[in-house]
Recover the amino acids of this structure.
């Protein structure tokens, strides 16, 4: 396996590097590109790269697009559709709903809504999308989804997949870029997550999480995850802990 660097926010780059190391690879993580060090075999950007690197998000699609998808029962203010671009084509992950610092997967969608999303995704990324994980972010309005941005790497919205999805989106990213196979994306159990990047969660939140059998803390206390038999139950437990 080639030596890799993961460059971006510390918590995100460490997730990708640790995933790669767990499979026997050699990896290092940095917040910014190190100076005076020879580049490794592969660099994975989890933030906007410096000028001169071809994976820059500025070079990617910024299509204006509104979809007639009304999520009337949803709590989400933003919806993220993960695209896992393999050598054989695109796998569509289950949608991720978000509201503030809370995210969950799967965001309930009907089959017609999914097909509209997939069609829009193909229009946005075209035929030039590179192997790896691409996230399409939509704002949720009362009667439509409004396309807002595209991320050519797993960002904070992908953290919920560390518990909910097999393989998670960080593992998917390096596997796709290196040409390794991914056959399917499976949501194991509905999950809700609360992420606080700047400082670990408070002692009060940690104590409340201790009392919930379905709760877990990750990333040195920055990420709280709850898995349950239903999405509604996972969300209820998470709100009980953090509210």
């Amino acid at each position: 396996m080639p030596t890799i660097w993961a460059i971006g926010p510390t918590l995100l780059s460490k997730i990708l590097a640790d995933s790669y190391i767990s499979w026997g690879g050699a990896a290092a993580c940095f917040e910014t590109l190190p100076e005076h060090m020879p580049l490794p075999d592969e660099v994975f950007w989890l933030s906007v790269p410096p000028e001169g690197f071809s994976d820059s998000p500025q070079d990617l699609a910024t299509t204006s697009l509104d979809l007639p998808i009304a999520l009337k029962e949803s709590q989400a203010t933003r919806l993220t559709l993960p695209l896992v671009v393999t050598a054989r084509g695109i796998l569509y992950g289950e949608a991720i709903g978000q509201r503030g610092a809370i995210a969950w997967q799967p965001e309930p969608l009907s089959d017609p809504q999914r097909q509209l999303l997939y069609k829009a995704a193909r229009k946005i990324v075209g035929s030039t999308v590179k192997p790896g994980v691409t996230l399409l972010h939509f704002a949720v309005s009362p009667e439509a989804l409004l396309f807002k941005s595209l991320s050519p790497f797993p960002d904070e919205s992908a953290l919920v997949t560390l518990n909910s999805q097999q393989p998670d989106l960080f593992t998917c990213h390096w596997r796709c870029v290196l040409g390794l196979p991914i056959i399917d994306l499976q949501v194991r159990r509905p999950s809700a997550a609360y992420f606080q990047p700047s400082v670990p969660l408070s002692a009060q939140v940690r104590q409340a999480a201790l009392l919930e059998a379905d709760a877990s803390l990750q990333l040195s206390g920055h990420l709280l995850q709850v898995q349950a038999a239903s999405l509604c139950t996972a969300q209820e437990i998470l709100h009980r802990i953090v509210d």
User: Anything to note?
Assistant: The domain at 65-157+165-186 is CATH 3.30.470.20 (D-amino Acid Aminotransferase; Chain A, domain 1). The mean pLDDT is 92. The first strand starts at residue 4 and ends at 7. DSSP finds six helices and 15 strands in the chain.
